Amino acid sequence: MNNPHLKEQVDSRRTFAIISHPDAGKTTITEQLLLFGGAIRQAGTVKGKKTGNFAKSDWMEIEKQRGISVTSSVMQFDYDGKRVNILDTPGHEDFSEDTYRTLMAVDSAVMVIDSAKGIEAQTKKLFQVVKKRGIPIFTFINKLDRDGREPLELLEELEELLDIESYPMNWPIGMGKGLHGLYDIYNKRVEVYRPENNNGERFIPLVDGDIPSDLPLHQDSVYRQVLEEVELLVEAGDEFDTEKIARGDQTPVFFGSALTNFGVQTMLETFLQFAPAPYAHKTEAGEEVSPYEEEFSGFVFKIQANMNPAHRDRIAFVRICSGTFERGMDVILGRTGKKIKLSNVTQFMADARENVEEAVAGDIIGIYDTGNYQIGDTLYEGKLKVQYEELPSFTPELFMKVSAKNVMKQKSFHKGINQLVQEGAIQLYKTYLTEEYILGAVGQLQFEVFQHRMLNEYNAEVIMTPMGSKIARWIDPADLDERMSSSRNILARDRFDQPLFLFENQFAMRWFADKYPDVELKSLM
């Protein structure tokens, strides 16, 4: 490493994802973080459809209508000497594939938990992905402004269900209507919920673990109970261990309320202290590329069409893994060996964007895509010549036949279906004999989003006929025999022209395997 300026820039980056079960408050906390970063002046609210205040990270029209996140958003701001890149991900399980790929592009994660519900199904799934990557995970237990479960109970559940040590950075003093504040164990202070009740002071420093005796809160029974609980936590709980945090074996836990913006800034500032700068990334050959390597490299983890409805453009999101991006530079697209000039490149605030002249390892940039890129593509500069590890793909479980309702709109239909399929959220197949279009997805909501976007973004109304659940299995083209196809195992090909069968059920697949024992059936994951 002989470029101190590059090292300084890379070390200032903090790139993380926010994960949660739907409605735990993930998008709301994202909004508050953006407020602190000066990126927005007013936080929208997911529930605010009547006011027109939509979440900044929920930029797609269907997200605004439904109040849910269905695509990952990228947002960047500066705070306290750090360049922060937040990737807000869909919480809904139907869009987990987008979330899984996004988690490959971050260096740490913040897990948001609803204090009334605890660990929920999607949170557990996403946590396992983060855990598998071995990156740090920080926990924010949200919605203290409402009545919820006992904090000790929540910590026990977190440790038991997720098999990770926890360290409470702060502890709630009451909750719901009885919320007084947070006992900040790490920063040795009490954060007051309503500063107007404390002469406008937001923080009360602790002296020997307690607040001054002349304050009304000092005699409050809830506060006295918290002192006992904190003493128990300090004596019997796990010690704060930065090495365990770095490995993803211990999660610092923060309590707060994103909706009332309580405890969020404390979490942000502490998170930035302990969250890692960009890591080295592994190549398919098992080698690691240092973020301080001077030559540029990165990988495409997401493609998004129509972020700007006025221009109907398409953006390839790239995580920079090493070196410096400079506008106008030439890079090699690893899959094709083709040289590409990166002239039109942007950085993001959800759907808003600005041209970027320079970016470094850890940053997320958006490249205008005219059809060059695929999810998982590696870009590199000069002699670096790397191929980063393959991103996860999921075998669809639900299938629909799709066709254009108006035959005069075939051009719009084909353009729309090709662009939306390239985003990776939905898969496209064609039957071998009849060339019918079949869509495959992990969940039903993906079909609804597809149908909505086809109509609103491409003016192409579609007819969708449910096929129900199928089992998709790929075969080697050399084993292909069209006579293998039947009503119980439909022969099709994917958009890369690879043959596969859609089996009616497990019985049909076993029957096929018995009849053709030499044909290997393969799934994506």
From TrEMBL:
Keywords, sorted A to Z: Cytoplasm, GTP-binding, Nucleotide-binding, Protein biosynthesis
InterPro entries from the UniProt entry: EF-G-like_DII (IPR053905), EFG_III/V (IPR035647), G_TR_CS (IPR031157), P-loop_NTPase (IPR027417), PrfC (IPR004548), RF3_C (IPR032090), RF3_dom_3_sf (IPR038467), Small_GTP-bd (IPR005225)
GO CC field: cytosol
Organism: Enterococcus silesiacus
Binding, GTP: 20-27, 88-92, 142-145
UniProt xrefs under PANTHER family: PEPTIDE CHAIN RELEASE FACTOR RF3
Gene (name only): prfC
One Gene Ontology molecular-function label: translation release factor activity, codon specific
Similarity section: Belongs to the TRAFAC class translation factor GTPase superfamily. Classic translation factor GTPase family. PrfC subfamily.
GO BP annotations listed: regulation of translational termination
Name of protein: Peptide chain release factor 3
